[in-house]
Specification:
Helix content: 25-40%
CATH superfamily of the largest domain: P-loop containing nucleotide triphosphate hydrolases
Pfam families: SLFN-g3_helicase (PF09848)
Number of domains: 3
Number of helices: 17
CATH architecture of the largest domain: 3-Layer(aba) Sandwich
Distance between the termini: 21 Å
Largest sheet: 7 strands, mixed
Protein name: Schlafen group 3-like DNA/RNA helicase domain-containing protein
Strand content: 15-25%
Radius of gyration: 26 Å
């Protein structure tokens, strides 16, 4: 990706606007944005800016996977300049946008200056310390642009990594409570829809289905946080064991969060009477009997429920429930609103692509540069254990399989390698994850990855483990040469 010369941009966009208005393939700007950009260029040119000062801008740049857009970005060796272009002055909206811009730009490790140009009004600069804007003279921004040493080598796609903006209610709990994050456009859209529908029809069942890495957990916890700030009393049922983040929200911030194991008729009668909205997270794992208890009380008290789930995330053969399908079949009288969050934000695209090809080779032909994936092989168990201990000391998170103690389990020897298992990490994410595959895994006749199960689904647990990775994923293959060779073929596949 290369930066542009602003005069060429607005003249080219104007030509497209005049001659092929219906063809949106090449368009970056709308008609009023073209006019704003022209006015901006004419204004700074009148204050001494020349051709060099009009070059080096990324116009209408949008952060991949997140959707945050900037009107003008210019990267320098000394700083980053961001300029937003407006037709009308609205201080509240401008401050809100510029604060959001600063949030994303501050992670790039360069000083940031954020300006806004309002056509026929002038320039404003954002001050992060006071979260306000101040009107400035044109010569201030003109001098700032002229003094910048433009870095033409910067590729914003390599600077704006989703992992830099990852905020988890569990792994970054204090930042979450303090609002040090923003929702993606896709998340915000669903949040606004749920709020509007709850306002119109309070007794509604919402089914939010989403794949791993889309930020569904952050979304529902953000909705719950806003409800709490508005004086409501949401209650969250997590269909798994509570993690450290859950317990911090419960103890330090007095949230009503309970593990699914607590749910029985006594719990429902006691805890749901004062509940404004019920959230059921990882709902694909809930048992039918527990779901029926909840639904009965919900209908009795007309308590709306927001179910969040991913059918692919299952750890036992009886899990993977499609909640929407269940509700349509058994409770057609209750209003059902289905939402789907598909845009991946947590996991980088390379890891997501590799995971697709791990479970079904050849299913994904994009993002095949797997530099963030490493494949290791061991034949000796003690050597593997020594290596895992080394990785744990170097900021890797090894995650192993959950076993059922009362039965003989084929993965029991792997369960002893590290203290964290698939059930411990539900809803969490980690920068660098280590996973394990042994000789119980193989590719079946249909070409997909298969595995011998213990009490829990080995394939389901592996999917849970590898989708926890944000920046890097390491797969350790133990004593399974054929599968090791197949994974190397996947990692080094040529881009088609």
């Amino acid at each position: 990706m290369r930066p542009s010369y602003l005069v060429s941009v607005y003249q080219g966009e104007a030509a497209l606007d005049e001659n092929c208005a219906t063809d949106k393939r090449f368009r970056k700007l709308k008609s009023h944005e073209i006019s704003n950009l022209r006015s901006f260029c004419e204004e700074i040119t009148s204050f001494g800016c020349n051709s060099a000062d009009l070059d080096g801008y990324f116009v209408g740049y949008s952060i991949p996977q997140i959707g945050k857009e900037f009107d003008l970005l210019r990267f320098g060796n000394d700083n980053i300049i961001n300029i937003e272009l407006k037709s009308e002055f609205n201080e509240t909206k401008i401050v809100k946008q510029m604060k959001k811009n600063y949030y994303y730009l501050k992670f790039l490790s360069r000083p940031v200056r954020i300006f806004c140009f309002v056509d026929n009004n002038g320039f404003y600069e954002y001050d992060i310390t006071s979260d306000s804007i101040t009107k400035i003279q044109t010569d201030v921004i003109a001098q700032c642009i002229k003094n910048q040493f433009v870095d033409y080598s910067t590729d914003p796609d390599k600077e704006f990594l989703p992992s830099k903006y990852l905020i988890s209610p569990f792994n970054s709990t204090d930042k979450f409570i303090n609002g040090e994050y923003f929702l993606t456009n896709a998340q915000q859209k669903i949040k606004d829809e749920i709020k509007a529908e709850l306002g119109n029809t309070p007794f509604t069942y919402f089914c939010l289905s989403a794949n791993a890495g889309t930020g569904k957990t952050l979304l529902i916890y953000d909705i719950a946080k806003e409800m709490i700030s508005n004086g409501l009393t949401p209650l969250i049922i997590h269909c798994g064991n509570l993690n450290l983040g859950h317990n911090l929200l419960k103890v330090k911030y007095d949230w009503n969060i309970y593990p699914i194991k607590d749910v029985d008729e006594k719990f429902v009668d006691t805890c749901l009477d004062n509940c404004s909205v019920l959230f059921v997270d990882e709902a694909q794992r809930i048992r039918d009997s527990q779901l029926e208890i909840i639904l009965k009380k919900s209908i009795e008290n007309e308590i709306p429920i927001i179910f969040s789930y991913d059918k692919k995330q299952f750890l036992h053969k009886n899990e993977g429930k499609d909640i929407a399908e269940y509700l349509r079949g058994k409770y057609p009288e209750v209003r059902l609103s289905e939402k789907h969050l598909s845009s991946n934000v947590r996991t980088n695209n390379k890891i997501a692509s590799f995971i697709n090809n791990l479970f079904k080779p050849g299913s994904c032909y994009s993002n095949l540069d797997y530099d963030c994936i490493t494949i290791e092989y061991f034949k000796n168990l003690d050597d593997m254990k020594n290596y895992v201990n080394f990785l744990r000391k170097n900021n890797w998170t090894p995650i192993t399989y959950t076993t059922f103690k009362s039965n003989s389990d084929p993965y029991e020897y792997l369960a002893d390698i590290c203290p964290i298992n698939a059930h411990n990490v539900i809803g969490q994410e980690f920068p660098k994850v280590v996973s394990f595959i042994d000789n119980h895994f193989y590719y079946g006749e249909n070409g997909e990855l298969e595995a011998e199960d213990g009490y829990y689904s080995a394939k389901g647990m592996l999917y849970q483990i590898v989708t926890r990775a944000v920046e890097e994923l390491k797969i350790i293959v133990f004593n399974n040469w054929n599968l090791y060779h197949r994974l190397l073929e996947i990692k080094f596949a040529e881009t088609k």
